[in-house]
Amino acid sequence: PLGAPPREYNYPKLSPDGTRVAVEIRAEGGRDIWIWDIRRRVLEPFAVDPADDQLPEWAPDGSRIAFANTAAGLPRLFIQRADGTGRAEPLADRQRLNQAMTFGPQGELIFSEIVPQQERDLMRFVSGTSGPIETLIGGLKSQGTAHVSPDGRWIAYDADDSGQFEIYVRPYPRTNDGRWRISTSGGRQPLWSPSGR
């Protein structure tokens, strides 16, 4: 136990230095993002407003957090300094449901997006978090939660290609160079260990 007060926590994400946890908290007013400081044992608000704030993801250097905000209706991607200073900056004005997933080794943000007639694809900003956007992994089925390995060479994700969600791994960023199924009887929301093994 980390000692945090009882709340309805969802999608906890540990900071790269292992000292803080960004987490979505559900309450009567909706969903907000808070940060639990493990050493100081303090729970601090990060993205708290009338709209839902959800699915936080740390940048590789721990300086920023990407998340989705529903103020415009569908979730849109934003990024903000992890210390809470400054304004949350929108990353892309796309009229589809977007959710931050993981960062690549060059600071590029990988996110999932609802694609008409194709359920959900994995997309990425080609250069950092403000460059052009491309489809990273797509198809007729849904490609869901993704996580890039610590060495930046692989991406693990869940997809329902077989009729149920399973975990797959592909090379990164050349995702068309191979695909291996890791799970055998279903799986969701993969995470790499810090060693990448």
List strands and helices in order, with pairings:
Blueprint (H helix, E strand, L loop, with lengths): L7 E7 L5 E8 L2 E8 L4 E6 L5 E6 L5 E6 L6 E6 L7 E2 L7 E6 L5 E7 L3 E7 L7 E5 L5 E6 L5 E6 L6 E6 L8 E2 L16
Antiparallel strand pairs: 1-2, 2-3, 3-4, 5-6, 6-7, 7-8, 9-10, 10-11, 11-12, 13-14, 14-15, 15-16
Short characterization:
By secondary structure, the chain is mainly beta. Helices cover 0% and strands 48% of the residues.
List key phrases describing it.
mainly beta; globular; four-stranded antiparallel beta sheet; 197 residues; 16 strands
State the helical fraction. under 10%
Termini separation (Å)? 25 Å
Would you tell me the structural class of the helices and strands? Answer: mainly beta
How many runs of DSSP E, i.e. beta strands? 16
- Write down the secondary-structure element order: EEEEEEEEEEEEEEEE
Task: Return Rg in Å.
Answer: 16 Å
The biggest beta sheet reads: 4 strands, antiparallel
Mean pLDDT score: 91
- Number of helical segments with 4 or more residues: 0
Strand content: over 45%
| Main sheet strand line-up | 1-2-3-4
The low-confidence runs, each spanning 5 or more residues with pLDDT under 50, are none
Bulk shape: globular
Assembly state of the chains shown: single chain
